[in-house]
Write a structure and sequence with these properties.
This protein is of the alpha+beta class and 408 residues long. Helix content is 22%, strand content 40%. The strands form five sheets. Strands 1-2-7-3-4-12-13 form a seven-stranded mixed beta sheet. Strands 8, 9, 10, 11, 14, 28 and 29 form a seven-stranded mixed beta sheet that branches. A six-stranded mixed beta sheet has the order 6-5-27-26-30-15. Strand 12 and strand 13 form a beta hairpin.
């Protein structure tokens, strides 16, 4: 457990849901009266817990404060990492710092863009977002019950927010697509006051809080680029005017390939895209009848490009070490309220085969500089030079600091 005078974080691996919450409450309230009556809380419960009981136990102790978060395969703290489904974290915030503006919308499957539109309009109207008001977006995965396919609402949700936020200067948005377990079972989400499903919740922080981020990667290119020449709703039918699956099979694609890179660009040189950012996308379905492939996001369009990506153990560890050290060294120890690590569950050592958890490298970089709250996700929203966008199989490390004039 780690705290400073404004933020306190608890962690538990207890099997009993009430026991886990009580242990964390004792941890976060043990040293200071600041945390007996916090302004708000952020909580994540392992997928094997009872989320309603988890949420209600927190609310019963602290009263009617907003509690934001939801279910997750596991959690990460300054000293602990786990994803057995029983790991939990609880973060409480002192009334001495301004609480974020919390906005939630029920998101219907197949209607993510409209949900994003509603969030963007409300963020502009009520939260009065600017380029200096960072935001945290939590949203859910869902499974198509008829086709049993994994669907991720992140890209269309984010697109709706950015389009309807009402101003050219979009705030930096980070976020996570919540899942309940490594099999990507649909999550529950805590929207502040209720336990929900099919919901997106956005926390808009004040200009007194600044966010600094780095994205950790772990894939390498396994092919050149192929232009998408026919697609619909995340299903790619043709690459280079040929059946998509046939093209990939001829270029080194095999049954172990689960990640593709999607590149959007306005220009090309000698048949390849230029001035682009590759966004990782999970491959969720192969159709041998029509030779189509399906991505977990539905943001691909004709004229975009894809390439085969491969998980790479050394690259994953080196990227995590470098990016986390770079971020923490750039900030020093001044004014950091807390650090958050949103870690795709596909990066765990159990899945990637690394000798140790890459989250240990994040812990080593953060050390005692700030409280660390982390949780495993199905996908993440990171911030790059070109803005915020959804990625699969990445981690997003974000430091939330007090925005004091003259500070680094």
């Amino acid at each position: 457990m780690k705290r400073n005078s404004l933020v306190s974080i608890g962690y538990s691996t207890k099997i009993g849901t009430k026991d886990a919450v009580r242990e964390m409450i004792k941890q976060v309230t043990n040293s200071s009266e600041n945390f007996q009556n916090p302004a708000w809380a952020m909580a994540f419960c392992g997928g094997n817990h009872n989320p309603m009981l988890f949420f209600d136990t927190i609310k019963k102790y602290f009263g009617n404060i907003p509690v934001v978060g939801g279910s997750a395969p596991g959690a990460i703290s300054n000293t602990k990492v786990g994803y057995t489904g029983y790991e939990c974290s609880l973060t409480v915030f002192s009334p001495s710092i301004e609480a974020p503006y919390i906005i939630s919308e029920r998101q219907l499957p197949e209607n993510e863009h409209e949900t994003g539109k509603k969030l963007g309009i409300r963020m502009d109207k009520y939260a009065r977002v600017t380029a200096d008001t960072p935001a945290l977006l939590l949203y859910g995965y869902s499974k198509n019950t008829r086709e049993k396919q994994l669907l991720n609402s992140g890209s269309k949700l984010l697109e709706g927010i950015q389009k309807y936020i009402g101003k050219p200067d979009i705030p930096p948005i980070i976020g996570g697509g919540l899942v309940s377990d490594p099999q990507y079972s649909p999550p529950v989400i805590f929207d502040g006051y209720e336990v929900c499903t099919d919901t997106a919740v956005c926390l808009v922080f004040s200009e007194n809080i600044k966010i600094s981020t780095e994205t950790t990667h772990g894939c390498i290119s396994g092919s050149g680029f192929f232009e998408i020449t026919k697609c619909q709703n995340g299903i790619i039918y043709e690459l280079e005017n040929r059946p998509a699956l046939d093209v990939l099979l001829q270029r080194g694609f095999n049954e172990k390939t689960v990640i593709l890179g999607l590149a959007k660009t306005n220009g090309r040189t000698n048949g390849t895209p230029e001035d682009y950012t590759v966004m990782n996308r999970k491959l969720i379905n192969l159709n041998t009848i029509d030779s189509s492939i399906q991505l977990s996001e539905k943001d691909c369009e004709e004229g975009d490009w894809i390439q085969i990506l491969s998980r790479h153990k050394r690259n994953l560890l080196e990227s995590t070490r470098y990016s986390s050290m770079k971020l923490m060294e750039s900030l020093g120890e001044n004014n950091i309220l807390f650090t958050m690590y949103l870690d795709d569950v596909g990066r765990t050592s159990k899945i990637t085969g690394t000798d140790f958890e890459e989250a240990y490298l994040v812990q080593g970089a953060v050390k005692s500089k700030s409280p660390l709250v982390g949780f495993y996700t199905g996908s993440n929203i990171g911030v790059e030079k070109c803005g915020s966008f959804v990625q699969a199989c990445t981690g997003v490390l974000a430091a939330f600091s007090l925005n004091i004039p003259g500070s680094r």
